[in-house]
Fold this sequence. Notes:
Strand content: 5-15%
Number of helices: 12
Shape: elongated
Largest sheet: 4 strands, mixed
Oligomer: single chain
Distance between the termini: 33 Å
Amino acid sequence: MPPEGYVLDCTPDPRVGRLLTIAAAGALLISLYSGLYDQSAISLLTLGLLVFGLLDKGRTVSLPDAFQAALVALVYLMVMGAVLVEFPLLHWASNIVLGVILGAAGFILVYGLLQRMPDEGGKAVLMSVLATSFAVAMAVLLEFSEFSLDAVMGWQLQGTLQDSMADLAGVAIGGLLMSVAHFQRRQAGGIFTRMVACFIKVNPQLLGIGDADDQESLMALISTGEGERLEFKSTFRRNTHTGEKDKRMERAVLKTLVAFLNSNGGTLLIGVNDEGEVTGIDLDSFESRDKLGLHFTNIISSQIGNGFLPFISFRLVPVEEVWVLRADCRPSNEPVFLRDGNEEFFYIRSGPSSVEVKGSELVSFIDRRFRS
């Protein structure tokens, strides 16, 4: 996983999704025009997955942008490798990319079976071997399927035995590359993080990973009650009295985050009322969980600043039928202000409250806190 404090934004970008969908449609047209019907089938399957993702909006399963891009790259390499047969490196590249994808699927399967998120624990070598073995096993299954179709249907999907061995070797190389990335997973933005960790992060309900631990940790934290480093908010942007969206709710959330950043850090739980009862975040005011996460990131960027995103990590934690947004803040190394139009406001924690500091008190606090 990424370094402490790094915000792993796994929210698929709809604009990227649309561009990749158009690209997949282009690959389908090229393969059909070239009479490459097996590649056409794979292109059609990829296009269907991308279109489903756009329409489903992550409610059933969400594919991170890196995973979608890898699928589209695979399709193009397969199509162009078949069209430009004089460039065998394209065929090799397609098998390596396939190995990377299958290796990522292998890791996701292993973590799913272990019911845990990727971290520094566990048998890293064994997990890498299992994931690579899964990639090669799937490749063998594909080769066997092609052999069977050739024998039964009279098709010519396979080449020579040497070609099959070369395909398996390419997939094995791709699986090994993903295994190497597994050991480098703390490199924020790396291929393992973007494909495996992001898939797990945005699909906890599909894999059941981390739910129990997250819930137990959350409930234990709630039981301690609000204090200097813990605050509850029952809603994100909906006024609980009027039922309507209210910018003041968002401002209250940002105010708390700024106060934590300017003080000793802390945790904000949205979806928990003042009595410590889990009411659930107002998720129905967003199209999906991904949209909520993207909006949360955007308001932090626009009203606090991009430079402070590394100090805030957040995730949605399922509790029975509802979700709680948990935002953990580390102390900032420079003053943090909340922007509201042309004005800026400075907050710190004072016991269980966030209070504004201004004038000479602000100057004195900044000197003591950030310049001493």
